[in-house]
Specification:
The chain contains 20 helices and 9 strands. The protein has about 450 residues and is an alpha/beta fold. The strands form 2 sheets. The chain has a 5-stranded mixed β-sheet. It has a 4-stranded mixed β-sheet with strand order 6-7-5-8. Strand 1, helix 2 and strand 2 form a beta-alpha-beta unit. Helix 2 packs antiparallel against helix 15, helix 12 packs parallel to helix 13 and helix 19 runs antiparallel to helix 20. The longest helix is centred in the C-terminal third of the chain and has 22 residues. The termini are far apart.
Length: about 450
């Protein structure tokens, strides 16, 4: 029996509607964001997922930066690495050397046919993640710099002017003494001790951390952070600890909770801490430039970035990489970047996002929100202040922090500790140089 035209058309509709919809390509994104920052990461993924139907980004918290790197290496060896891995800046040289494990971002974007212009990114940020030929290897994401937070209510109680944060370490010492005398149990604490007090201390005072432009000009480099200026600074921290002015909180961001809880009156830590501080602090606070030593010629110079970038792991299908490329394009949109910057305190990674934020009047409404960008761009970067790229620096940082801890505990003087840190760190550099060719 012949089907009528209408019946045939109806049958075709039924057949088409019964056909399975094309499955979304799932993109695994491993990250290390906690608290309010984890909430912002989920928002970013949800925003991208809602903007199109072909891909679904799934953010997965994998522990601290070192823990997530270790987990990703193990997963890569087992053949089930994530598509995207958030790696903190000190892991850059290690990731660059892992050529078989990564797909450079410039290559990803070109192969995927997704619009990509490296010139739209803030040079001070993007330069950290490009090779010597100017090719972007990873996508800048949560870029930060350390800043100086002050509890203005605690300053008022101590008879200090809450609108005048200490600019130099001499002024800092005067304020610390008054805060202690006012009954402040924890006067000062710091997050990320090596990043703040060795790496950024060096850049802020235009001092080299190591040779070969802090490792950027080649892997055959040596550490030099045991100079008289470095020794004097770490010795000062040891004296602060002895005076009861400095409370050590740990090697990562544990100090931030001590500040936003009101326990500690002053904090040096990431500009990216602002999201959690704004969410939790029940007091008035300010964000300021890092203090500097006014007896060091040329200080202050400029600070350098920290935070992390997004690396793409190798061995995935072209359709998966197209999804990663589209997600990176979404993350780079001015409106997406401007919101991320304003919500978190991380610096905007694109020039357009920075300009959009400025024009919106946000910096007038939220005093201090522009401090990170102003400090990064305080002066044109020098060979000492454009960043660092040392091999095995995840372990190198641990060595530095172990030696700083010995000074704070009164077990070593600063010169001995920094001499030991340089010696031990150089052993790590030699091991890395022996296994990695210059990129």
């Amino acid at each position: 029996m012949k089907l009528t035209l209408a019946a045939a058309a109806a049958a075709a509709v039924v057949t088409l509607s019964a056909a399975p919809a094309r499955a979304q390509v799932e993109i695994q994104w491993w990250h290390s964001m906690t608290g309010a920052l984890n909430e912002r990461v989920i928002e970013l993924a949800n925003g991208f997922n809602a903007s199109q139907k072909d891909y679904k980004v799934v953010p997965v918290f994998k522990g601290s930066y070192p823990e997530s790197m270790t987990a990703a290496i193990a997963a890569f060896r087992a053949g089930n690495a994530p598509h995207i891995l958030q790696v903190f800046e000190v892991g850059t040289a290690t990731m660059m050397a892992a050529k078989g494990a990564i797909k450079p971002v410039h290559q990803l974007m070109k192969e995927s046919g997704v619009e990509f212009d490296p010139k739209v990114y803030v040079p001070a940020v993007a330069g950290y993640y490009t090779d010597r030929k100017g090719n972007m290897l990873s996508l800048p994401f949560n870029s930060s710099t350390p800043v100086f937070y002050v509890n203005k209510d605690a300053f008022r109680k101590a008879g200090l002017d809450p609108e005048k944060a200490p600019r130099t370490w001499k002024e800092f010492g005067v304020a610390a003494g008054k805060l202690k005398a006012s009954g402040q149990a924890c006067v000062y604490t710091t997050g990320w001790p090596s990043w703040v007090h060795i790496e950024n201390f060096s850049a802020w005072h235009n001092l080299p951390i190591g040779t070969k432009e802090n490792g950027i000009a080649g892997t055959d480099t040596q550490f030099t952070f045991n100079s008289p200026q470095h020794v004097a600074h770490i010795q000062m921290l040891g004296e602060f600890a002895k005076n009861g002015w400095f409370t050590y909180a740990g090697r990562r961001n544990e100090a931030e909770a001590k500040f936003f809880s009101g326990e500690c009156a002053m904090l040096t830590s990431s500009s990216g801490a602002q999201a959690n501080i704004r969410k939790n602090a029940k007091f008035d606070f300010s964000v300021n430039f890092l203090p500097y030593h006014d007896n060091v010629a040329g200080a202050p110079q400029n600070s350098i970035i920290g935070g992390a970038s997004l690396w793409v792991m190798s061995g995935k299908k072209p359709a998966d990489y197209k999804g990663v490329a589209e997600f990176f394009k979404y993350l780079s949109r001015p409106e997406v970047q401007a919101k991320w910057h304003q919500d978190t305190g991380y610096v905007p990674i694109t020039l357009a996002a920075a300009e959009m934020t400025r024009k919106s009047g946000y910096y007038e409404k939220v005093p201090g929100a522009d401090i990170a960008m102003r400090q990064l761009n305080h002066k044109p970067p020098t060979a000492n202040s454009k960043g660092l790229r040392f091999g095995n620096f995840v372990q190198g940082r641990e060595v530095i922090e172990e030696e700083i801890e010995a000074v704070l505990a009164g077990k070593k003087d600063a010169k001995t500790a920094l001499d030991d840190a340089v010696r031990r760190g150089n052993e790590l550099l030699r091991r890395f140089a022996a296994t990695a060719k210059d990129s």
